[in-house]
Amino acid sequence: MALVAAPALAQGNAPPAPYAYRQLDDPAQEAAAQELMETLRCLKCQSQSIADSDAPMAGDMRHQVRIRIAAGEQPEEVRAWLMQRYGDYVSYAPVVSARTWPLFALPVVFLLTIAAVLWRRFGKGKA
Fold first, then answer.
1. Where exactly are the transmembrane stretches of this chain (predicted)?
2. Is the pTM above the cut of 0.70?
3. Which of these CATH numbers, 1.10.1200.10, 1.10.8.640, 1.20.1250.20, 1.20.120.1200, describes 14-94?
């Protein structure tokens, strides 16, 4: 029984990734990493960015962002990699695609419908 539970217990005791809390040596790269981390959602906390979250998963994501920025990748390449790995939900900056365009169009349609109803009801002068 202990052999079966060993992997689960080891997971919780694993040390944080090296760059989870340690900054990059190059200030420009660290600034780019910080800016990117502010726009990525912690998948465990969901209401915090990975820069603000203390969740182990957020630490792993910060580590990935920093090592990829240090390797010379652009922030948008790192964002695209994380979105491919974790899904669009990881980014606070939504992407308009064939799947998501109704989310952007519905509020406009709703406001136009309300405006049309109000104009028909109150806009015509009584003759």
1. 101-119
2. no
3. 1.10.8.640
